[in-house]
Design goal:
The chain is α+β, with helices and mostly antiparallel strands. The chain has one domain: Lipocalin (Beta Barrel). Helices cover 21% and strands 37% of the residues. The chain has 3 helices and 9 strands. It has an 8-stranded antiparallel β-barrel with strand order 1-2-3-4-5-6-7-8. It starts with a helix and ends in a 14-residue tail after the last strand.
C-alpha cells in the first residue's frame, strides 16, 4: 500500500513539474496581425520532420483569409535538395483573442480541415514587426526565428535567442539557414 501511495505522489509531483515547464512559454499579449502579415524568412529552427529536406531560402507568407477575416492564410516555401521547390498551404486561427499571439495552424488538405486533428500550436513569443520574430510551441518541440529579410543583425538574433532560452527552448539545437558576416550558426547566450 505504501508503494502505491508513493507512486501516486511521485506521479503528481512529476506532472506538476511538466505543467510548470509548459506554462513557461508565453505568447505576446499585444499581437497586431495586420503588422505581422507579409513575408518572413526563416533564419533558424529547431529540427522538425516536415522541414527535414528544406534548404534556404525558406519563407512563410501570411495574409488575411478573404473568406473569413478571423483566419490567416499561410504559405510556406522552401527549396529541396534536388527535388525542386516545396510549397505548403495552410490556415491559422486565433486560439484566444486576436491580440494574443496564440494561434493554431493546419496544413491538411482543404477538404480535411473540418476534422479536429492536424492542428499545431503557433505561438508568437516576440515580434519586432519590421525586423524579427520568434515563434514556438508550448511543448518546446518547435521554434522558429523569422526575419523580414535573410540578412538580419546578430544583436537582434541574440535578443530573440535569449527570450527562447528563458522560455525553456534548447537553442543549442537550432539549425541556421544562412551563413552571414552578421551572425554565426552557433551563438553563445548566457
Amino acid at each position: 500500500m505504501r508503494m502505491i501511495k508513493l507512486f501516486f505522489m511521485v506521479a503528481m509531483v512529476l506532472s506538476t513539474l511538466n505543467f510548470a515547464h509548459a506554462d513557461s512559454v508565453t505568447p505576446i499579449n499585444d499581437f497586431q496581425i495586420n503588422n505581422y502579415l507579409g513575408t518572413w524568412y526563416e533564419i533558424a529552427r529547431l529540427p522538425n520532420r516536415f522541414e527535414k529536406k528544406c534548404i534556404a531560402p525558406i519563407t512563410a507568407s501570411y495574409s488575411i483569409d478573404p473568406n473569413n477575416i478571423d483566419r490567416v492564410v499561410v504559405v510556406n516555401k522552401c527549396s529541396r535538395n534536388g527535388d525542386g521547390p516545396s510549397i505548403a498551404d495552410g490556415i491559422a486561427s486565433f486560439v484566444e483573442s486576436a491580440n494574443v499571439g496564440k494561434l493554431e495552424v493546419t496544413f491538411l488538405p482543404k477538404y480535411l480541415r473540418w476534422l479536429p486533428i492536424g492542428y499545431g500550436d503557433y505561438w508568437v513569443l516576440y515580434v519586432d514587426y519590421k525586423k524579427i520574430a520568434l515563434v514556438g510551441s508550448p511543448d518546446h518541440d518547435y521554434l522558429w526565428v523569422l526575419a523580414r529579410s535573410a540578412d538580419v543583425d546578430q544583436e537582434s538574433i541574440n535578443n530573440v535567442l535569449a527570450i527562447a532560452k528563458n522560455q525553456g527552448f534548447e537553442i543549442d539545437k537550432l539549425i541556421f539557414n544562412y551563413e552571414s558576416e552578421h551572425y554565426e550558426s552557433t551563438v553563445s547566450i548566457r
